[in-house]
Fold these 4 entries.
Entry 1:
Amino acid sequence: MKTRPNYGAGFAAVIWFAIVALPIYVLVSASVRGREGYLNKGPLSLISSPTLSNFSRVLTSGFLQFIGNTVVITFAVVGIVLVLALPVAYAVVRGTGWLNRGAFRLFLLGLAIPSQAVIIPVFLIINRMGLYDTLWAVILPTAAFALPISVLILTGSMRDISVELYEAMAIDGARSIRVFFRLVLPLTQSGISTIAVFTALQAWNGFLFPLILTQSDSTKVVTLGLFTFVNQYGADIPALLAGVLLSAVPILVVYLFARRALISGLMGVGGK
Amino acid sequence: MSRPNALWAVPGALFFGFFAIIPLLGVVYLSLTEWKGIATPTFIGFDNWVSLVHDPLLGQSATVTAILLVGSILVQAPISLLLGVWAAGPQRNRAVLSSIFFIPLLLSSAATSIMWRQLLDPNFGIPAQFSALFGGSGNFLGTRWGAITSIILVSSWQFIPFHTLIYQGAARSISETLYQAAAIDGAGRVRAFFAITLPQLRNAMITSTVLMVIGGLTAFDIVLILTKGGPGTDTAILPYLMYSDAFKSYNMGYGSAIAVILVILATAISILMVKLSGYGEMTSTQEGL
């Protein structure tokens, strides 16, 4: 159907575009400007004499280590979530009996548990396990709290597999493990990439678990590093904003290449 | 045996139970203890609860949490709905603009809050550049309502894209034939929006609003970085109060009592969500997509 142009909506969209773009412009422009230029002329002025010195100041103050830690944590969390969530979703969709229904309800309930609310007992558990101030202290709870939404998205995409395909394999006498690897995994690929990207985003941007469960520089993640920079850098705002930009670069790169998986994943989070 | 047995769900359920369900029970027990973060928690009965009920900060904190919740929903819900419906359109320019709209949800709350704190800085931020416009000091974060407004602004900036996505997905699934029928009946764009789009978005509204409530209840990182609960304790929302009691003053038992209140609020809301949106019925194949 031919749509007439909607000028009112277009106007509103342009305003919203300005609201989104302006802070991002300041973020990028401040990162490449000298300290005096920013402080004297203000955040909205045009860029003159661009420099990369802000980035080198940030990178030489331990930021590379923080990025390294965050990369390790992100990969570990995604790995754990995939290994644990896929079988759960399979059991929920194809299994019978009250145990499987119970598992599904457990994860539905889990969606509503805010991580803040349980952080004190988690702190106690991590301490007792002797994991305080290690990368595992961040990896394990982050993975646990990413499970409910992952199970939910995966059950959605496994329900899309037609019943006839399952029945055909059952007639061939395939056992559940064979069905899982030969049928479920190949046909759930879009769901898998969705939760991988979404979980990675959560792990990369996580703040509360690192804040409470780590303390030294050697275990610091990017978000927490930025938080400590706020006090450390004081009025060196361009360096601070350069750090903010650096922290987002890997995610922006993923966004460029996996936009569809990420967007459909986030849409799925709300829609399911 | 082509169907999986319950063993398939066991590792995931145990792992989740260990780090989420056991702590959920643990926090109730810890709220009945005195614990300084080291050694072993000592059982003290309801002492924490008694002092919590008499703590004037609790009422203040609950009030500011509610103000932030309501304020965030009033700002975010209408904008997200309109943007989502707009972005759901098939036009090419909308797709391009939307891909830019979604950038804020890629940034961490920490990064977003730090960026906005610099933007709102009274000496070096935007208020300083337009001081004539704002008059006074332009120190938004230094006043109670300024700080509350700033938190609503920053969380809206970060979370509107997410809720826009929810509405966009829902608006895309509205059948085109409904609009064609409305056009044949001579309904204009505005009429079609109120008669078709809004009622069809009912479930998206429920989901999005409930997520806004839970998000608002727990918007801890933004408060910590933007205002540190200040000025004074004016923006110390419940999770912030819990954090400062438990991990600044090391009154873990007292913090746990506040955490229990958070759990009760969040659970009550999510049960409401399950009831209203029918999540619980989604057990058979091809349903609830």
Entry 2:
Amino acid sequence: MKNINCVQEALIIVYTSKRYFFVTLLAALVIFLFNTLVSNYSLLFSDFSFSLFFSLLKGTLASMTILSIALLVIMSVLAGVITAMTVFLVKRQVKGNLKTSSSSILVSLIAPSCPSCAMGFLSLLGFGGFLAVLPFKGLELGFFGIGLLGVSTVYLSNKISIKTCSISPKIG
Amino acid sequence: MKLHHRWSRTNLTLKKIEVVKIEEHKLEHSAAELKKEETVTFTKAVLWKSVSGLLGILLIISIFTDGFSFGNSSPSGALVAAPSGDVVPSLQAPSAGITDMKVLSDDDPFMGNENAAVTIIEFSDYECPFCVKFYQQTLPQIKSQYIDTGKVKFVYRDFPLGFHQQAEPAALAANCAGAQGKYFEFHDKIFNNGGAAGKSGADYKKWAQDLKLDVAKWEKCTNNPAQKQEIQKDISDGSAAGISGTPGFIINGKLISGAQPFSVFKQVIDAELN
């Protein structure tokens, strides 16, 4: 309950400024597009056109299950929120957050992977076999990722909603 | 006047003392700066940031250079061989002009003009629902607009995924139908019945009978180890070409992953034809 209140408070603090909505949206979009288009990156780079871009996006989404898409959207939004919180904290010069934020955002890159349809970053890296061994064929990673992003959100919220500067134990 | 003179002198002395003190401070400051220049301190945070940044840059470079292969293309366009029987995913996706399509096509069944300007190689799994989707929604359009008009040669190669129990038996059944000259008839039978999911040997046998194959010969063929080796070769070649899931396509060296809509294929094929 305390954590939820903390997160709520942090979100109010961060999103008081409209620019963080933009940061969240941009980061979420980047993560979402990365996960949907990464398996066809070579084609996109060699023959780029906007029609190809949108066709690939449409085709990839049509190849994903509803659950995969839902997990991906949630992860993208959470990654966007974490990015906005990180930017906020960096601007406030609160140290020690980049590790948590970066690792969480990297987790969102693995996303729900579907080994049979080669979607997702892990399949591209050749971990399709590993995903095939998992009971839910990679979807567990989506839930795991969301869990980790949730923990990071709470951690960053604690940093944002804190109203004092901590005294380093080394001083005095 | 005397007072003023004394005050002035006192004032001058005070000023002198101030000047001396300022200069002493400057000396100390310079000494401190000199000392600073002699030592360099790295905090853990700086070190971590630098390493993360460097790894991030390396990752980006590896993506753009297909895994740090700077101009490493064999003139003959030979594929990187993978050990037979192992699926060895490769980061080296083929790019235009590097992959030898004749080598990649192997001796697998094909539709259309053998000498067509564009070759599409599909790596597919009979139990994969997205392969069924491609067959039902996209392949008919490719067939009518490009294959039947002689512009495209369409090659089918097997890529059964390990967790699809019926994928390999279905592939064996189709290959053995192909040995009797009816590969694509059997291939269509499988996909028209929703793929190999939920099917069994009895279904494949019934379809073999429907297609008027020599069933005894067909059954013997499906138990031939050479047929399994053929499928393993397809998997190895596909993995080496960058296929990491099904359906996967190589169109004149360009990799397309997933059951993409016809518009994607149209753009790529038209670009190759032009």
Entry 3:
Amino acid sequence: MLKIKKITIENFRGLRLPVTIDFVKNNKSTSALIYGRNGTGKSSIVDAWEWLHNFYIKNLNRDGVLLTDLPHKASGGINSYISVDFQHTSINSATATFNPKKITTPTITGEYNEFKALSTYPNYLRYTDLNDFICNKRQAARYEYIAKYFGLEKFSLLQDTLQTTLNKQTINLQNLQAAFVTSRNTINAITGLTIVDEATVVKFINTIAGKHKITAITTFKEAEIVKTALQKIVQKNPVTKELIEWQAFQKRQNQFYPITTAKANCIGLEKLFADLKQNEESIKQLILSSLYEQSIEVMPKLEDKSKCPVCDETFNGDLLQHITAKHNSLSALNKKKTEFDAKKSLLEKQFEGISRKIAAIEAESSSVVLAAFQTFFDDLTTINSTLPTLIATLKKQLKDLVTLTISSDTAIAKIDTIISNETASKKLVADKIAALSKDETTKTLAQDYTNISNIVDNFKSHSINKEKVAYLKSITDNLQIFFNSLTTYIQTEIQNTFTAISADVVDYFNVLENSNPDIKNPALKLITGKDKAVELEIEFVSEKITPAFKFLSESQVNSFGLAFFLAAVKRFNKDFKFFILDDVVNSFDSFKRPRVAQLIASRFSDFQVLMVTHDQIFFDTVQRNFSEWQRYKFTAWDYATGPKCKPSKNYLEEIQSYIDDDKPVTAGQTLGKYLEWILGILCENTKTPIPYRVENVYTLSDYYNPIAKRFREKLKLPNTQHKLFRLLDEFETGTIFRNYCVHWKNEANQFTTEEIDAIFEKWIEIEQIIFCTSCKSFVHYKNISSTNYVRCDCGTVNLLDQTHYTSTR
Amino acid sequence: MTELKDWIAEFKTEKPELNDFVTKLEGFISDTGFNTAKFEKAVETGLQKKEEEVKKTFTTDAEN
């Protein structure tokens, strides 16, 4: 089994000087706990761990952090590494060092590849990962989370990018098919037939060729010969030539019109611009609007509702109300800004449309048309000269616009002129065509030439598109088969894996949720017809509920997210039992946090864990429960050196150390804080009522006396004495403890080291029988079917067991 | 755990008729997903090639 001895990281993200996390204590392999406030560099350790495995850090990558940003800035990319030392028969170490010459490929040393072969599945979970699972409303995001922790991240990533490609190529294919159909329909309209093939087209061309005494052709390759010959005949007949040119222009003219006026939209936009610019300062505040919006959404989910989620400062008063008021005050302005953006975008699209229409008509080569429509083409040139500038202006953001004067631009007036001339222009062209079509021979020749030109061009387009469609269809069909097969594989793997680990998921969920008997049998359901959608189904009071996320509380979803991760960790990486939890307890209600520690103690005792937290109480809980772990405090951080890191003591070690150093006052005060905490847990566990104090100031006696009484009531058996009773009696003996209970917070009341030591020792004796070292829980009281239970979570410590009693007869 | 490359190899065995296609596709697949841009460029080149081929059939004899 691969075990970690130590992890060393230097010059990576926020870590400058080498930071070493030991996983050996007293020559025994163990786990590690890191506590530090936000910004002390804790998460850099998890980042380095992910980078060691993948050579990139996904969530940082998503946020635009480049690989070049990973080494500590002051290091210049030199000597930036993570190194892991192992206890194993053949794997001694694995190191990845940042390679400034090839940033995507770090230099790997030691038995890196052998280590990677044992650490294939993701074994780290961040608060943000769990939060994504819980808060993200997209089903696809949950699918990705599950795929990742089931070891299918690369498959899911491929599925994702393939889907994008497939969508794009499908649209591409549809466009080609549409062009193919258009050319086919045009040919059909010319021939009057429904078949489009070379023989039909050649036959049609030959019919026209025959009419004009042009040699017949046998293949389409010769079509241009007929077209050229006919063109020569047309050239000899100026009236026909002109008629053809007018007919061609008429076609382009009909595609050019209608054009919609832009003036009204321009004036409307300028008015909105003027209004918004009058409130320039407020506009700057609009940036805050989206932050306010997100804060309003996220605040009800926060535990501490007085701390601003944007600036992290504490607010005196109702923060949610305050932010909502701020948001509302900007909503009118926001509405106007949204309207401005929409109008701006509409106008931009309109100008781009006009630009495209001009490009299609302006390349006129007929001298007769150019002469007759000189003003029209001059106007197009004028519009073209400023339209790109206007489009560029409209692409700018409001904040970057100093002035906005579009409506007075010459192009706008010219567009209106062209619009007002539409009817007259069209009439002019129609009259010209009518006048030139009076002679039947001329008309027929023009028609024949137009038909030959069109059928030749369209058959070429038809042939090209036919080949392109066949080529692209083959690719998209094959890609679709590949994609479908990949999707089926992922979905089957997800379902199979979930089935295999579902018992563990339920078990862990129950530990975290304290065995809620009404919630059971979670199952994953893949949504039919959707490639990346998965829903959780849950059985609630014998009824199947889907989606469970709508039904479960946020805290229960949290528990599921963590249960998924831990169950996957347990199932995979069987030769490397290790995982990292980075601040995940943050997602849990405070009363549930100790259960995370209990879960690890009871189900993952054979694992090495790296627990990172910024929660002081959770840190104390884990320190207390896992005294054998290595424990570190990141007390501060600075740019030049990185985190200030020091080994940490738990309460019991700290108290003992003060007693050893003959510091009774500090020892007494630390013991008081500790007893206050533990007695609180015991009162909760045993459902012990305590006196209510309106001033909210409690002495230790307020907790201790009711709990001692409770134990005596619930453990009392006739003619016997419980061992705990004796210990409680000894603990309470004399006045020292009673005095201590009332006065421990008062530094003026001096207790001797011996007195504190006596209280401490007695309490440790009590703890030894009411705390389970296996599941790391204190005993709790339960009454099930009129039977009393006073036992720990796993049942190892059972205070109603006969072994705790001695006969008094 | 099945590696992506192993799955692709298995897919080729199950669908031998797609062997050539998948072999070409593998050139665009890496651990970070599917190289969409490179693939699109390759498809565009393929389409362009098809167009050139068809265009040749229109003009060869005519030019001669």
Entry 4:
Amino acid sequence: MSDPFSFQLRQVSKRFVKGKEAITIFDGLDLDVPAGDFVAIMGPSGSGKTTLLNLLGGIDHVTSGQILFDGQRVDTLTENQLSAWRAANIGFIFQFYNLMPVLTAAQNVELPLLLTRLGQKDRRKNVATALELVGLSDRAKHYPREMSGGQQQRVAIARAIVSDPQVLLCDEPTGDLDRTTADEVLGILKLLNREHGKTIVVVTHDPEVTRHTKRTLHLNKGVFEEKTALA
Amino acid sequence: MNQAMLVAKNLGRRKLRTFLMLVAIFIAFFLYGALECFNRAFHSSENAASAERLVTVNRINFTMPLPVNYAGRVQQVPGVRAVTYQSWFGGYYKDQREPLFMMAVDPATYLAVYPSVQMPAEQRRAWLANRTGLAVGKTTAAKYGWKVGDRIPISSNVYMKKDGGRAWEFDVSAVFSDPDDSAREGLVLMGHDYFDETVTFGRDQVNMIVFSTSSTKQNDAIAKAVDALFANSEAETTTDTAAAFNRAFAAQFGNIALIITLVVATAFAAILMIVGNTMVMSVRERTREIGVLKTLGFRSSTILGQILAESLLLAVVGAVLGLGAADGVILVAGKFLQGFGSNLQMTAAVFLGGVGWAVLLGLVTGAVPAWSGMRLQIATALGRR
């Protein structure tokens, strides 16, 4: 049986050294993200939102403390182990989509599957399913430059979910989109949370995001100020 | 899609840049291929020369003659097996600008000293018997379309006939091959008797005496004995191995190997800097994409491999195209260059050597960007720190 928590942060500290100055981002931060959660993390610039997302995704390292995923520590994993862990469990969605310009939508979505043992036929099937889920089946052969921002973000979502990870980490996923398109993207994330049970952590400045999430955490100077109850 | 396709897609993202890098590599390997083929052709006869053959020439230089009777005296030196002599004829066929590598030789002794020269028995008999007979190497025969039985006029840039003419009539008696020394297949051999009878000067004189010995271990002693034989004479001699003679002959044209090495090294150094710098720029432009790949779960070693594969693919494709073009040029040049034309070819050794250099070039030019890509921190690459 899977642990009820996707993520558990225990006494996490994160410090940077910039020149001669030591900057503390977190000092003893605790956080529980239950499996199936859809949580928005809001806060002013410099509050530590992105750093938190980096730590959750294993693309940055804690200075001290523990990060547990499904009850297992991930802060002690090596770089190669983290790569494999991310490939298996985490999907990333970025503000600026970060698609490969030389690849078509389908090829972009297929990228994470190159790290699996799936054959070409199965990979194509999974790519088609992911693109269908985000409503872009007809854009499979289009390059990013041939698509709108909203379509590119939907391709990025398809890429994030194609290998069926348990968690989606989203960094300002609507930050570069107009309201209507942003709502479409948030609708897809909501669907992935409710229908497919994905645990979703969204870092955002956009208060509209909170209308779609189950709860919102406010981060200020590395500390959670208040928590809304689970919806 | 697969990772190889990803490598190809990355190379194709800036087509003009990739094309220009390919052109740079193409030029370097074209130069390498062409010059190395010339170098090898130039030194092939040196390599093919039997260690058992010694060459005696005039001590002043090999263009100065020696009396033909020296050959008989050389034969008397202990350890000498077979002796022959030859003179440069300076012949050409129709076009003075296309000289033949033509020697006047004594057919019987020539074949004894060069046993690797092969021709059918009846042609051999015909050449030995016919005063105006000509033995033509198969490369030259093919080039001019000469066949046994043809009667052909050949003129000399050096000698005149006693009757005032410059054209000698010859009968093609034999077409020969030499499996041990394909450069020899570019030669044209006339009888020394006919030469002596018809020339206005240089009678009973030869340019070199060539002889085989019974043991290479005795070569030094035999060479000294031969030169001692003619010491203080009007035509003192110097004797060395055929390989050394060929080497000295080649050295007249300068240190070809050094020139080639310098040209190729300069081209390679320039290409190394150009391609290396371009690869660094190319990878730097993709910093964010590399970060994304790592975020998706691509290992650092995979990123390293991809970037190295890009530079390797570029280098090898450019090199193969360059070597292929060099092969074409060499093929055409070989038809115009009598003498070592038959040896002027893109050998497997030159081609594989070129590919080897391309692999090295690819690894060196890809090393820095690949290492940078591998070491790149995701958070830094994504500008998230």
